[in-house]
Amino acid sequence: MIKKLFLESNFLFFLRKQNFSLVVALVLFFVLTIAGCESKIEDLIGMETSEESVVDEETDAVVESTNVEKKFSKIEEKTLLLEDPEIEKTILKKDELRVGLLLPLSGSDSFLGNALLKSAQMAIFDNKNDEIYLYPLDTKGNPQGARKAAEKAIEHDVHIIIGPVFSNSVFAISEIMKERNIPIIALSTDKKVSGDGVYLMGFMPDDPINTIVAYAADQGCKDLGAVIPNNNYGKVVYQILEESSATNNISFTKKIFIDPQSKDFSEEIKKFSNYPLRHAALLER
Fold this sequence. Notes:
InterPro entries: BCAA_transport, Leu-bd, Peripla_BP_I. By secondary structure, the protein is α/β, with parallel strands linked by helices. The chain is built from 13 helices and seven strands. The strands form two sheets. The protein has a five-stranded parallel β-sheet with strand order 2-1-3-4-5. A two-stranded parallel sheet has the order 6-7. The protein is elongated.
């Protein structure tokens, strides 16, 4: 208990010492990106201009667009070039905040990782802060890659880690970061990884699921079925559904796991909804 309190107070002291608003902005950008990861990067940036304003102020728009491109280019340069230790020696200052971004920048989840990286860059852009440096490190979406990324982050002497996204990757780096008192703001939804210097900032499904199941029980529902993605997040949802159903005296009678990468769930939905039997009964009428 004492150790836990020490870690919590150490983290709060870190936030007071560093740029609290910018750390929060970074994390909020990540959460918003996860919630709407199907959006285009242009939608996240929000730099589109109406046709009328372009016609009325064409010159100003061109100048502003050029400035935005230059600034965004500088942000990318700061985040990507810091892989070179020689550059780090020449530009880092005492009061600057070094953030290790552990994201799946390659592999099957690279779209999410790169969208999150863009979000971090835009958080810096919107805050107009030159005292934070991002170290984007590729976890490759697996624990082995996460450990290698964590080791690189330590070499860069980062103050804080944002990421990884997946719980198994968080488990893989939590011990090594705890030994060095480097706090982790994980983007996972698995509460099992939290504690001892790991703080969760992902979407937590507990409350919405419990609310839905409780409402169904109040409406007289006796049976519950669910279509669940076949991944780590789906496993968390399944466990919460089982516990919430038992608490509300509802039978969790039917479940089906689907491939989240699939674009056609029609066969799974037919099976889940007893479509063949219902269709045959309809034809017999």
